[in-house]
């Protein structure tokens, strides 16, 4: 039996392969370059006193902490010792509170710096040979942003470091060879090359900066970048989440981790789904004619699509949806498009709908539960408020990122059995705690490895993003105090009770709601 904190990991990823590892430590390169401190419009500091905490923009501190560099046009820190680099974690509650934060503390930031540095230096990206991901950076950054104390950070780390695998050694010859595009691509999808990719990207970020490296290796549009883009949305979007945390909290070392993690994932989902959907859509940036909610409702009425997934499918995406109903899935996914003048609205639309189907996929005769696969779509949504405002990212790439996110949300909904959505179950759920109490319970949960904390923060952030569109778009299903109700559902439904797992998996299937219901990916 796995420890309780590992129970959420007992599923298969997107067809990843097992490899053998050893217990050597990762060889890191030294770093001298700093990272752009980019402040998005949605970055907020949150009071925890009220039911709906007011979010006020943080003061801009560019004049005190940053200066422009000529090579990329990005903001770059120039303080000599207190700065984040490609090999050094440095977080400050003043400049790096996160897109959504609630009383982030400077003493906690110092503790996070020490522990995430240790994690970077000593732990592998996967904690077993089934490619289950190391979530330590996700959890610690999330609870830091939610107001955790240093002792909370230490407790979470002590609980979750016990099952991590040691970092692997890097091979300097392989690292040097990666400057050759063909050699770089030969290492794709191979776990043993994670330390080589990590050291390579650390060196590249040192030399060029985060913006230029992302542009070259993810958004350039050549064969290598296209494969990286595809891989970034694999592995239950964990590479995207890792990269998102690095971007959000201004940590180039975590960006390097995200890129290295991307490189060792498979790209089959991109080849089978994202690229064909993009082609069917007629390219990138077409004006979206249907909301995500409209597409979800049409998908629920499509019998072939609904029946395309079976409980027994080993991989419900590969062996289910994209095996039995690929054209139907592509038809709907290709209709999620975003033009330049729709970015903010489509972001809110995407967040609202994914929170809707995550919260409303319930069974009237059962206790409220949330689906483990669905929450990844919610948790990853928080980063897009920053991604769409990155000054170094061109508009085409921003539109593409948002389109791919909307499409994975549609695919994930269908792959879990296209569950019925019972909004009344959400609307009638009692509000017993405000956001500050929800955050506190998420931080203190003894069995969480970060998924609950990420969810609580993403929900509070989603409320802020969507609030401005409630009157403009009355069809948005999640509005008003429903956000707080869902926050209460999140913490109430994950209370430890015996051997019951925190989450339901593949909520559209009856079997998932049984005590031992453990769905495959």
Automatic annotation (TrEMBL):
Keywords: Oxidoreductase
Pfam family, one: Questin_oxidase
GO molecular function, one term: oxidoreductase activity
InterPro entries, per the entry: Questin_oxidase-like (IPR025337)
This protein's name: HypA-like protein
Lineage: Eukaryota, Fungi, Dikarya, Ascomycota, Pezizomycotina
């Amino acid at each position: 039996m796995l420890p309780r904190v590992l129970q959420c990991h007992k599923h298969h990823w997107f067809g990843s392969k097992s490899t053998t590892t050893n217990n050597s430590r990762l060889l890191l390169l030294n770093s001298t370059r700093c990272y752009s401190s980019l402040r998005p419009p949605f970055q907020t500091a949150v009071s925890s006193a009220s039911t709906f905490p007011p979010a006020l923009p943080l003061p801009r501190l560019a004049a005190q902490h940053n200066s422009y560099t000529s090579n990329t046009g990005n903001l770059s820190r120039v303080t000599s010792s207190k700065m984040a680099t490609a090999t050094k974690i440095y977080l400050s509650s003043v400049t790096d509170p996160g897109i959504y934060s609630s009383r982030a503390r400077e003493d906690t930031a110092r503790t996070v710096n020490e522990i995430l540095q240790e994690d970077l230096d000593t732990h592998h990206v996967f904690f077993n040979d089934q490619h289950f991901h190391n979530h330590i950076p996700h959890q610690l950054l999330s609870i830091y942003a939610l107001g955790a104390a240093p002792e909370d950070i230490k407790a979470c780390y002590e609980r979750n470091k016990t099952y991590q695998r040691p970092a692997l050694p890097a091979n300097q010859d392989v690292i040097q060879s990666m400057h050759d595009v063909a050699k770089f691509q030969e290492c794709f999808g191979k776990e043993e090359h994670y330390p080589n990719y990590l050291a390579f990207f650390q060196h590249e970020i040192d030399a060029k900066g985060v913006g230029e490296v992302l542009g070259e290796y993810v958004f350039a549009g050549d064969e290598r970048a296209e494969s990286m883009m595809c891989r970034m949305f694999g592995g239950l979007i964990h590479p995207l989440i890792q990269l998102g945390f690095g971007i959000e909290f201004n940590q180039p070392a975590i960006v390097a981790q995200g890129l290295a993690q991307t490189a060792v994932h498979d790209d089959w989902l991109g080849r089978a789904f994202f690229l064909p959907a993009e082609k069917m859509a007629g390219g990138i940036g077409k004006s979206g004619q249907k909301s995500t909610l409209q597409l979800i409702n049409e998908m629920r009425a499509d019998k072939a699509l609904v029946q395309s997934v079976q409980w027994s499918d080993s991989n419900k995406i590969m062996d289910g949806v994209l095996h039995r109903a690929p054209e139907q899935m592509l038809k709907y996914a290709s209709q999620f498009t975003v033009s330049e003048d729709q970015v903010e609205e489509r972001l809110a639309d995407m967040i609202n709908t994914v929170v809707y189907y995550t919260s409303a996929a319930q069974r009237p005769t059962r206790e409220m539960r949330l689906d483990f696969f669905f929450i990844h779509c919610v948790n990853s949504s928080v980063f897009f408020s920053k991604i769409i405002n990155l000054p170094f990212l061109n508009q085409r790439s921003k539109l593409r990122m948002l389109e791919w996110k909307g499409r994975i949300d549609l695919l994930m909904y269908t792959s879990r059995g296209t569950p019925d959505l019972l909004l009344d179950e959400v609307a009638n759920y009692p509000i017993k705690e405000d956001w500050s109490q929800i955050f506190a319970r998420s931080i203190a949960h003894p069995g969480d490895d970060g998924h609950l904390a990420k969810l609580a923060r993403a929900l509070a952030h989603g409320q802020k993003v969507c609030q401005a569109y409630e009157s403009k778009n009355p069809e948005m299903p999640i509005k008003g105090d429903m956000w707080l109700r869902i926050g209460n559902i999140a913490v109430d439904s994950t209370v430890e009770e015996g051997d019951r797992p925190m989450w339901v998996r593949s909520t559209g299937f009856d079997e998932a709601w049984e005590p031992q219901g453990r769905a495959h990916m």
